[in-house]
Amino acid sequence: MINWRAVAGAPVVTYGLIGLCALAFLTGPLSGFNPSYGTGDALLAAQSAYFERWGVIPDQLTSGDSHALLTPLTALFVHGSWLHLLGNLLFLYVFGAMAEERMGRVRFTLFYLVCGYLALLAYAVANADSDQTLVGASGAISGVLGAFLCLFPRARVTSLFPFLFFLPLRFPAWVVLIFWFVLQWLAARNAEPGPGVAYLAHLVGFVLGAVGAWGLFRRRARVKPRLVAPEGERQP
Q1: In DSSP terms, which residues pair with 169 in a beta bridge?
Q2: Per residue in 115-166, pLDDT tens?
Q3: pLDDT in tens, 1-14
């Protein structure tokens, strides 16, 4: 029997986004599970064509090409490797559910897509002459991280830090997320031109997420629950 109350309270958008990203990867030419793409040179050509069709190519996007204007949305569901996919989905799984619960499903969906689109657009504008394809949900998920920092700064999350021998330790969210942001900023400063991780998209997405969550959700009036004394503490 289906527990509809549990379904109604589940973070279905977060799980849906995870499912769509996984499905796009598994049916695409990178996973190795779809034999229709062939092998060898045929597979490499299929992978290149796949990225060019669905990924962001900065010089095309900034030129105003009609198809390219949609790619910051389609690129959110395309990943370049198993590690890229699993890393992104892990962050979305850990931080997405609570953010979705606070924002509501419709607003969370729009928030995710807008942060992701603008993060990839910002990267394309900053690298307008580049013809390197950009894919991945990192910009949108960075927006979720920024929102989580704003909405739940004291929530404790389990993290693995290399300098602590990868021990699973629980820290306040603000410690984990600010540390993550600093790492992205340092990496962006030292990044070399050409193919690689789009750290700028991570930074832009994070800032957009934090500012957006503060303006749209943090300042919303909160109704404090009425405290009712237990039966034995009520006064006659």
Answers
A1: 159
A2: 999 999 999 999 999 999 999 999 999 999 999 999 998 887 765 544 343 4
A3: 444 344 557 899 99
Alpha-helical segments (H) within 40-172 = 40-54, 58-61, 71-74, 82-103, 105-126, 138-151
Contact in structure between 61 and 68 (CB atoms under 8 Å): yes
What is the torsion angle, in degrees rounded to the nearest 10, for the CA atoms of residue 102, residue 105, residue 111 and residue 112? Answer: 110
Contact call for residues 149 and 174 (beta carbons, < 8 A): yes
Q: Evaluate the CA torsion angle 106, 108, 114, 116 in order and state its sign.
A: negative
Chain centroid to CA 148: how far? 12
Q: Which of 221, 208, 212, 5 is nearest to 107 (CA)?
A: 212
Residue pair 143/119 in contact (Cβ under 8 Å)? The answer is: yes
